[in-house]
Specification:
Number of domains of chain B: 2
Order of helices and strands of chain B: HHEEEEEEEHEEEHHHEEEHEEEEEEEH
Largest interface: A-B, 14 and 16 residues
Shape of chain A: globular
Number of helices of chain A: 5
Largest sheet of chain A: 4 strands, antiparallel
EC number (chain A): 1.11.1.-
CATH superfamily of one domain in chain A: K homology (KH) domain
Pfam family, one (chain A): OsmC
Oligomer: heterodimer
Largest sheet of chain B: 5 strands, parallel
Structural class of chain B: alpha/beta
CATH architecture of the largest domain in chain B: 3-Layer(bba) Sandwich
GO molecular function (chain A): peroxidase activity
CATH superfamily of the largest domain in chain B: FAD/NAD(P)-binding domain
InterPro entries (chain A): KH_dom-like_a/b, OsmC/Ohr_fam, OsmC/Ohr_hydroprdx_reductase, OsmC/Ohrsf
Helix content of chain B: 25-40%
Keywords (chain A): Oxidoreductase, Peroxidase
Amino acid sequence: MTTVANGVNVQALLDAREVLKTAPEAAQFVWRASSKWQNGVHSTTTVKEFFGLGQEQTHKNEAVFDADHPDVFAAEDNGITPIEYLLVGLASCLTAGVASVAQNRGIQLRSVEATLEGKHDIRGILGADADVRNGFTDIKVTFNIDADASKQDIEALVAQSQKRSAVFDAITNPTDVTVEVA
Amino acid sequence: MANSWRRERWDSFRLLTPNWQSRLPGLGYEGPDPDGYMTMGEVTEFIERFAVLSGAPVRTSTNVTSVRRTDGGYDVTTDHGEIGCRAVVIASGACNQPVVPKFSEAVPSSVRQLTPFGYREPGRLPDGGVLVVGASATGVQLAAELRRSGRPVILSVGEHVRLPRTYRGRDVLWWMDASGVWDQRYDEVDDLTRARRLPSPQLVGTPERATLDLNALTAMGVELVGRWAAVRDGRALFSGGLRNVFSLADLKMRRLLDGFDAWARTSGREAEVGPPESFEPTRVPESARLQLDLNSGEIRTIVWATGFRPDYGWLDVPVVDEKGRLRHDGGVVDSPGLYALGLPMLRRRRSTFINGIEDDARDVIGHLAQDLAVRS
């Protein structure tokens, strides 16, 4: 177990799990983002502060994300489309999960690559067909993993990573969303 | 006596364990069909026989309404008076109340809702479609029975435990027993909380010894949907994570069966079993529905097979945790002289099976007897 180095501090996570079992209030996090319209369908969203472990927290650096639409949408393409950010979130969450589970199971990873495809019928957002939904029709994630493990163990890593993924859950299950004008 | 077997089971209910595994101290199965599975009536008779054989001073038709700690022990109040005692063994089981999710309150009143306690047989349900929620033993059995009655059936599937009824020619529970999986102790497993919460396996006891996994249900025409997550505007919303719960169950089943194979090789039991078998992965529906309009009339009944919980409402001793579970260490409850038996993985994986009580009881009663000896 100790010879495996995937760079995940699993012990810290396991310790946190034990502590938070008896201190559920400290487990309540709030993630935040704030956005600003630029021009056209271009906006920038910044992420820096969040709340967790009972107090305000901050990332080392502020991160800024540009979102826009591509040429084919008659836009300037100053950044990726908002729905592509969902793929970014899903890919990074599942990959983090694979690394953490591998570390916990004593599996050395050499490379983990994933390709994601989200099928999207844009007649929904254009209002061209009321029977077509706005969001993804479906999403396919394909992992290519090189590791010291059997195919079965690698499949189990990917399955467990989905089981414990925040973004996988947020996309596959409904979430109550409030949007209001301040 | 045997009250829950008499009153809290549906008509077609049979044990999941083969008859030869139904044994209590001094009482084994002696009938003509050791590989069969007892019906509800047969289980009741079996327990009645044990009552006669053991001669235990059972007070029947007596409800315990409270258990309170006193100086030297416990005060047990019943509807037929009080009993003072130095020690109490709680053996009231883990399945006293069906668990139903909170969002069931948002289901339109035109849809009838039932739990396994209220279900008897398909004929008593309204005509039309049924949504069965939960794919453990109860859910798969009721979905199959309702489908066979000719009704359209949708089964909402979350995490589940897939098992074949037989493996390499032997009942899968023979493997659990013989290979020692059932003897794994509560103080040896990695994650006891998870082991104790494990849902019942997708098994049914039938004379044909048929496997009742999700592929069998799909072949019968049962429609599979993801875990039911919420009700919004009269619509049931199902998780889009169905593929992963299939993968998890397929992988765990294979790992268990691989363990059986390894045990057969190393223990020299290969001659007693057939060749290794592989099973088709759980088939993913072409496109699983993500929502269902509960007002459309497609579904007239919902059967909640979403698990059970114990009821300790009568226990006036502070030994129940915030999740409603008894705090105990292998049946030794966190209050002197108080013990438990018959809970999931109390001391071993077999703890909740009829054949699991003997070893557990010996350990727990050993502790109890020693405690009484020290205190006297």
